[in-house]
Amino acid sequence: MLLSQLAYFEALAREEHFGRAAESCYVSTSTLSEAIRKLEAEVGFPLVNRGKSTYRGLTAEGRLVLDYAQRINADQRSLEQDLAHRRGNLDATLRFGAIPSAADRAAEVLGRLVDANPSVHVELVANLTSEDIVSRVLDHELDAGVIHPAAAGGHTRAGRQGAVRLTALGSVSFSVVGRRETMDRFDGHVTGADLEQLPVALLGRDMLARTGFDRAMAEAGASVIPAVETTSISALRALAATGHWVSVVPSSGVESGDLVSLPLSTPTVEMDVALVRLDTRPRSMLIGALDEAAGA
């Protein structure tokens, strides 16, 4: 059994398409397909359900092998990173996920990481849900991410195989952004009652930040029905810039141009955020460097 076979198999399970999986591994489709057939011959089970020429999911044995393949491939990456550090240079790629409401906090952590380790390359996947980030970390598709910690649920139990570790990064509060001519009518802040009377753009209802917003509004007796929903903070700001909507976004200082940001009050909305990663021992040098950047 070769490491390359396990890498190709993990890529196929991730991409769910032979051609895309081969492209992600920089090999031909025939090379990838033949490697997986040899892997099947070695383990003695079919691992992939195939149509005439298409991927149709994994067999039960394929799902079992995938679990091991993901862990073995992750260990290989950690070994390569640690050996690079022994050579005096942490030359590694960090696969990182971020929720829209904590993109600024994620950028701060990543900035400290690369300041201390200039050879680290970051692959940042933005606009994910907290639940999606936790799932991808558990599946070894991401090394870490910034989430709302409630999404980690039962995955943080000490000693549990596949558990995740959380490092608190404080909280983010929310403000209301709109064009100056719209925001000038308010006296330094915007309330839930004010939002009831405005066309509002919000994060999508599958985001935990939106859940926190809805809960806070309900407790304050405000009924805010969004005119637009999106998973993108940049889209929320772009919508506000048109003047047709005001947007509820994470507070991030003074807006530029004709956009004005005012704090949201009565109710205020704050959400805890945290760095999430697998609770592995020993931890790789890359994860150790990330922990330091996060203040763990």
Automatic annotation (TrEMBL):
List the PROSITE patterns hit by this protein, alphabetically.
HTH_LYSR
Would I find Phosphoprotein among this entry's keywords? no
Q: Which residues form the HTH lysR-type domain?
A: 1-58
Q: Does the keyword Glycoprotein apply?
A: no
Q: Which InterPro entries match?
A: HTH-type_LysR_regulators, LysR_HTH_N, LysR_subst-bd, WH-like_DNA-bd_sf, WH_DNA-bd_sf
* Keywords associated with the record: DNA-binding, Transcription, Transcription regulation
Residue ranges annotated as transmembrane are: none
Q: Which GO terms describe its cellular component?
A: cytosol
Under the GO molecular function aspect, what terms does this record hold? DNA binding; DNA-binding transcription factor activity
Highest taxon in the source lineage: Bacteria
Q: Which family does it belong to?
A: Belongs to the LysR transcriptional regulatory family.
Identification of the protein by name:
LysR family transcriptional regulator
Report the source organism.
Corynebacterium kalidii
**Lineage of source species:** Bacteria, Bacillati, Actinomycetota, Actinomycetes, Mycobacteriales
